[in-house]
Amino acid sequence: MGPQLKPVIAGFIPLLDSAVLVAAAEKGFAEEEGIALKLVRETSWANIRDRIAVGHFDVAHMLAPMPIAASLNLTSLAVPMLAPMVLGLGGNAITASAELWQLMAGHGADPEGDPVSTGKALAAVMMDRMAEGAPKLRFGVVHPFSGHAYELRYWLSAAGIVPDRDIEISVLPPQLMADALAAGQLDGYCVGEPWNTAAILAGTGRMVTYKQAIWPNSPEKVLGVTQSWAESHLETLAALLKAIAKAADWCAAQENTEALAELLSQPEYLSCPVTLCLPALTGEVPFSRAEVLHIGDFLSFSGGVKAAPVPEHGRWFYQQMVRWGQASVSPKDTEVAEKIFSPGLFLQALGLSGASQDNSIRLFDQDGA
């Protein structure tokens, strides 16, 4: 590390949407901005949360709702946090076991992942199971305070399924989901890529629906940072945001897709075959071994205005915490959630202050609940 470089330690989970941090470190974007970026792979989101709270990490690849939960003292080792940049849009999917999908298909589930059709089909399967006295289905999510948990719950509820009462929801690290499905420990799960593709290519799972169909262009992961670190390292944070924005633009460029997949597949990052990384990055998404759909915006990166957080998104995540009994209604806490997703730091760092943002929220059932 050169004497002029400022060290920054970033924690990450092995998922495709860690790509912008990996590219910032590996492609020289961080160094160009005077940052010596060190990446540390972690095994669970709980570890990410705890290690940034105690100062092991300066910043982290983080579930979008997690800084809100930490700031509202809803998690262990809670500390006030900020989410100054969105690291990726989309990238999640809901995958069912091959056996469950066959039952859903028998009830008319749309093979292309329409969330209304697939939700109704799952509800019909569950009615059949209740009549037979079969045990509850069990679905996995990566953390209680995650986009995955809220997307899954929203989709289930829209179909008339009551989460926790009608279906069991368990927490498991992303990289274990496909193995848990194959072992019969889960009937389905909501996870980021490439861990849907892992089950699909193994023949044990089938994609049911996906994040872009449930809530298009919604934030998935953010750059998480404690408020205290941000306030005491404003120049370093601004330089880091510029570096990550450049990396995001590099990741978004189609001509870099294969190089990005190769980079992410390395042992120190996702440690998986390149073939698992390519589908979501190219938009050629396997729903089963025999069915591939083109979804160009399945997972997207941006270093421009789209990477700026949106306060309304912070409010929506907080509303889901209230809806599912994780938090109480509070105007003050609503304001905290919105401020965590303030775009100011990002837009100022990139010289985009005053740029207009799309603050709309359009979920598949159009009620925005």
Describe this structure in words.
The protein is 42% helix and 20% strand. The chain has 369 residues and is α/β, with parallel strands linked by helices. The protein is built from 17 helices and 13 strands. It folds into two domains: 186 residues, Periplasmic binding protein-like II (D-Maltodextrin-Binding Protein, domain 2, 3-Layer(aba) Sandwich), CATH 3.40.190; 123 residues, Periplasmic binding protein-like II (D-Maltodextrin-Binding Protein, domain 2). The strands form three sheets. The protein has a six-stranded mixed β-sheet with strand order 2-1-3-10-4-13, with helices on both faces. A five-stranded mixed β-sheet has the order 7-6-8-5-9, sandwiched between helices. It has a two-stranded antiparallel ribbon with strand order 11-12.
- The helix count comes to 17
**Cα Rg:** 20 Å
Helix content: 40-55%
> Could you name the CATH homologous superfamily of the largest domain?
Periplasmic binding protein-like II
CATH secondary-structure class of the largest domain: Alpha Beta
Rounded mean pLDDT score: 96
Q: What pattern of helices and strands is seen along the backbone?
A: EHHEHEHEEHHEHEHEHEHEHHHHEEEHHH
Give the N-terminus to C-terminus distance in angstroms: 49 Å
The fraction of residues in strands falls at 15-25%
Going by helix content, strand content and strand pairing, the class is alpha/beta
Largest sheet: 6 strands, mixed
Compute the number of structural domains.
2
Shape: globular
Judging by the overall fold, what is the CATH architecture of the largest domain? 3-Layer(aba) Sandwich
Largest sheet, order of strands side by side?
A: 2-1-3-10-4-13
CATH topology of the largest domain: D-Maltodextrin-Binding Protein, domain 2
User: Regions with pLDDT < 50 over 5+ consecutive residues?
Assistant: none
Care to count the β-strands? 13
